[in-house]
Design a protein that fits this description.
Elements lengths: L9 E8 L2 E7 L1 E7 L4 E7 L3 E6 L2 E5 L3 H16 L4 E6 L4 H6 L7 E6 L2 H10 L1 H4 L8 E5 L2 H7 L4 E7 L13 H10 E10 L7 H14 L2 E7 L9 E7 L9 H11 L8 H7 L4 H8 L2
Parallel strand pairs: 7-8, 7-10, 8-9, 10-11
Antiparallel strand pairs: 1-2, 3-4, 4-5, 5-6, 11-13, 12-13
Helix pairs in contact: 6-7, 7-10, 8-9
Length: 291
């Protein structure tokens, strides 16, 4: 995918799915480069605001990023209740980091990103996404391959959030049983793992395989759904794995108490949305329950 930065109104194809593509109008291409790991384009769109694509796949848009970032961060953290140590693998835009740091119980967040240029370019072009999170004293940035980090670190975490690309390019290794097994090694007892698992309608094998790996490693394996407009093709699944089966079953009434105590307002997440997100439509539940 090559974009002509001199053209004021280019059209960019998202090329993730075989047999299904869509086009996004780029009113203004701000940056295009091939980093050491992936092809990156940042541009402006009249509907979604500033956007970023990696290897032909939409990763971030200004106007709906809050949906994904709030739901990836707050569902596991309000379920856990009082997390102190959190690991984010990927997430170089800083959005999940921003949301995690809203929890006052959190004492340390390690963000492990393979590509430093993603952080630098997002700080330059999307400073409103991280909103100062990279400068928080609780933040530790590690530039490393996430698979190696979870295999080698001595740190232990209450929650691990895999804010990855789809299983192409450098993201492919973040969908393997070995990686998930090493994530479990890094979790404290009763901790929770949440993963980006694509669109079940179009990427069913991805979710089915990840959940199968979870089942071989954890006591509880499931998924919850979010709907983000720029991820076209149905709701997105976030994988869920923990040895504490209670975490997924906390009622909205208890979540409401925790949310009120937290004292911050959100645009997407709520206790009711949290509880409802785990109610899967039949075609997704069939993938999750497959043996």
């Amino acid at each position: 995918m090559k974009v002509d930065a001199s053209t004021s109104k280019s059209w960019i194809d998202e090329t993730l799915h075989d047999g299904f593509r869509f086009r996004i109008k780029a009113q203004n291409v701000l940056h295009e480069s091939r980093t050491g790991h992936q092809h990156l384009v940042i541009f402006e769109n009249e509907t979604f605001g500033r956007m970023m694509m990696l290897d032909g796949v939409v990763q971030l848009s200004q106007h709906d990023e809050f949906i994904y970032h709030e739901m990836m961060a707050h569902v596991p953290l309000f379920a856990f209740g009082s997390a102190t140590d959190v690991l984010i693998v990927g997430g170089g835009d800083g959005g999940v980091l921003r949301e995690v740091l809203k929890h006052q119980s959190v004492e340390r967040v390690v963000l492990c990103e393979i590509d430093r240029s993603v952080i630098d370019l997002c700080n330059e072009h999307f400073p409103f996404v991280s909103d100062g999170a990279f400068d928080d004293t609780r933040t530790q940035i590690v530039i490393a391959d996430g698979t190696r980090f979870v295999a080698e670190t001595a740190n232990r975490f209450d929650a691990i959030l895999i804010d990855s690309t789809d299983p192409i390019g450098p993201g492919k290794a973040l969908f393997t049983r070995d990686f998930y097994g090493n994530c479990k090694r890094c979790l404290k007892p009763g901790g929770v793992l949440v993963t980006q698992n694509g669109l079940p309608f179009l990427q069913a094998p991805e979710l089915k395989q990840s959940i199968a790996h979870f089942k071989s490693l954890f006591e509880d394996a499931w998924a919850y759904l979010i709907t983000t407009p720029t991820y076209v093709g149905g709701p997105m699944a976030l994988g869920w794995a923990s040895d504490n089966e209670v975490l997924r079953q906390i009622e909205a009434s208890e979540l409401s108490v925790r949310f009120a105590r937290a004292g911050f307002q959100l645009r997407c997440y709520s206790p009711d949305v949290h509880a409802a997100a785990f109610a899967l439509p039949g075609y997704v539940q069939k993938l999750v329950e497959a043996e």
